[in-house]
Amino acid sequence: VDPAQNVGYGKIILLGEHSVVYGYRAIAAPINLAIRAEVTRPAAVAGARPDAAAKSELVISGWDSDPAAHNPDGAALAERVATLIAARLGVADTPVRVEVFPELPRASGLGASAALAVSVIRALVHSFGLSLSEEEISQLAFECEQLVHGTPSGIDNTVATFGQTILFRKTDAGNEIEELDIPVPIPVVVGLTGVRSLTADTVGRVHAGWEKNPQHYEAIFSEIDGLVGTGVEALRRGDLPALGEVMNLNHGLLNALQVSSPELEALVDLARRSGALGAKLTGGGGGGAMIAIAEPGRIHSVANTLDVAGYQTYLTEIRTSPNGRV
Ligand code: MEV
Hints:
There is one protein chain. By secondary structure, the chain is α+β, with helices and mostly antiparallel strands. The chain folds into 2 domains: 3-179, Ribosomal Protein S5, domain 2, CATH 3.30.230.10; 186-318, Alpha-Beta Plaits (2-Layer Sandwich). The chain contains 10 helices and 10 strands. It has helices at 42-46, 75-88, 112-127, 134-149, 155-162, 199-212, 214-237, 240-256, 262-273, 299-308, and strands at residues 7-15, 26-40, 57-60, 97-102, 166-171, 174-179, 186-192, 278-282, 289-293, 312-318. Strands 1, 2, 3, 4, 5 and 6 form a 6-stranded mixed β-sheet that branches. The longest helix has 24 residues, at 214-237. The chain starts with 6 loop residues before the first strand and ends in an 8-residue tail after the last strand. It binds (R)-mevalonate.
């Protein structure tokens, strides 16, 4: 990563969301949408005397600011995240202006909250000439994710920081992270349902179900873990039909966990009918985003069908690292 970019990457979860929170494996990949941040320190720039009354300011261009507490991915929570970061970095006493430029939609399952945290950490680290390892950046972003989601697995902050396609497993002894080499880039359409959904809510829903029926839930998680294993092999072979098949099965099991929605089902169905080899919800679900893969010659027509039906779509690729950014 070029540190000067102050970037946190967006991500898709290819296989294994939700079960990853319970210690099972998942595959995640960065996408070619990111969040960038810039820090200006007015006093330092202007050479003026520091103003004791000056306050730090967080400006997010493009996201509608929604200070309502029920909207934790909005501006209010972003401010709490920025405050936590400044405190942890020991720079809370110096007023700064942090400007955030998101390419990612928020509350859509594409890792915007982790990407925002990473971008703000990087921007403050550079502005204050601090030195943090990539692991420390990811760990601090994980703390921010705990503020936002409660019980994150750690997969989002890892991809937001390192920008690599990974096989991830959370263990008591720490995270097992394996970088995956992708021999042939795999084209992906991301489709937005247009319904915002908070990962904290769907993670909470799964947790409530797991508490009531632990053995049934663990059986589903373990089944998903098996799909992740098959998916890794398919990715390594560049076998798109096999990968598509496990994505379809994973979506069915996510539906069993009740984190799909009518809007997601409609998108998945449309993507499959228009030639996708595999389609599933990605991230927290309950709304948010769907991903579909297709043969390179087919991917534009899948995206086009979704566009014509009125969905916002993005084209991206699963590769070892994202387009030209790393
Ligand atoms: C969110 O991108 C993925 C979830 O598995 C939550 C997490 O892993 O923290 C739903």
